[in-house]
Amino acid sequence: VLKDHQFSPAALFPGCLSVSCYKICGIQNISNFTTIRNRLREIVGASTNWQDHQQVLVERASLSQYLAQSQDQLPAKRMKDSMIEAHLPLGSQPALREKYLNSHNSVRFGRILEDLDCLGVLICYSHTWNEELQRSPLSIVTALVDKIDMRQNIIYPDCDIKCTGHVTWVGKTSIEATMHMSQYQDGAYTDVLDATFVMVARDPENKRAAFVNPLKPEGLEEEAIFHQSEVNKTKRVELSTASLLKVAPTAEERTLIHNLFLNTLDTRLVSFRGRILPPNSVWMEDAKLKGLEICHPEERNIFNRIFGGFLMRKAYELGRANACAFAGCRPTVVAVDDILFRKPVEIGSLLLLSSQVCYTEGMYVQVRVHSEVLDPLTRQHNTTNVFHFTFHLEKDVPAVVPQSYGESMLYLDGKRHFDGTMRNHC
Prior knowledge:
Blueprint: H1 9-12, E1 28-30, H2 33-44, H3 50-59, E2 84-88, H4 97-100, H5 109-128, E3 139-150, E4 161-170, E5 174-185, E6 188-202, H6 219-241, H7 251-263, E7 281-283, E8 288-294, H8 308-327, E9 332-341, E10 350-361, E11 364-374, E12 381-392, E13 399-401, H9 405-425
Parallel strand pairs: 1-2, 7-13
Antiparallel strand pairs: 2-4, 3-6, 3-9, 4-5, 5-6, 8-10, 9-12, 10-11, 11-12
Helix pairs in contact: 2-5, 5-8
GO biological process, one term: acyl-CoA metabolic process
Keywords: Hydrolase, Mitochondrion, Repeat, Serine esterase, Transit peptide
Main location: mitochondrion
């Protein structure tokens, strides 16, 4: 374990000692992410054998008797109760690098998304753990990736990484986990990213919502963190209410779309049908990239559904490839935000991914990835996720131009996400 106290549990919570990762209450110091995955299996009683695991999930129904009937029945927990420090020893364990290395000699960000998802779930289980039980009656799943903000452009493949995180807000059935990643370079840790995930608790069969322990902030700093998380929740509700799928664009946005439309009219024709592409521009229709994944049991989570981190990795890799093909140069991720997990993905499904460059500005590209599952037997399509990625390029990129009204709404949605990302990075 690398020795640095800049982001250690002891620095965040003075007077508290690190304990073994197998003690679920208190601060945990975990040597690698394989241990995290193994610990999650222990918490719910999952098996590494798929057929045995299916039987375990059936047996978990008996744990419903341990669910609280109201949040008042559960003891309040502190932020330090869920504090975890986990290490990714890329520097000290060279054999691990192959899994994380990309063709540009940096770390595959998609793998980092998988690890953050696992860590976020374990943090939430740490908050809700009952020492009197051998297994948790809760099924905790990722509901939303609120945001991931990058603090440096490159993650080095030969330097150890450290992640710290804890619960920062709790509702009745939902939990917010905030994580910080840093990397050891030149004798000190430097910031890599900050991430906020929102998890939801459900019953042992993952069918209905379940109550979780309330959170009791201690001290002014923790109260400020809790208050900011409440503000973030309010903003999420406001953004959902103002979604372009629910309400019309603002007057300013309508003017923007109309001006974009006027710029594409052929001035030689007195017609609204004659459209031409402005200089240094690309039609949105020509800025797409699609992919297909077959959902095998290998990618299942502890509840026998497809792992959310796997979905994020595949969406990110497709989105990045689309940004690279669009701009003709190497992109670096700036932010990931507003990933909503609408429906679980079943094993055996066909996962259809569609990536769209929906907004550009200067050296930035905003990419939206829509995922849906196709049941090969019933031929039914269902949207499961929508992902939003902001990339920075090495040069100015062409403007992307919508043609239809639907594309115009995608353009505005992309601009909203891009503007929000830039405000966070100012």
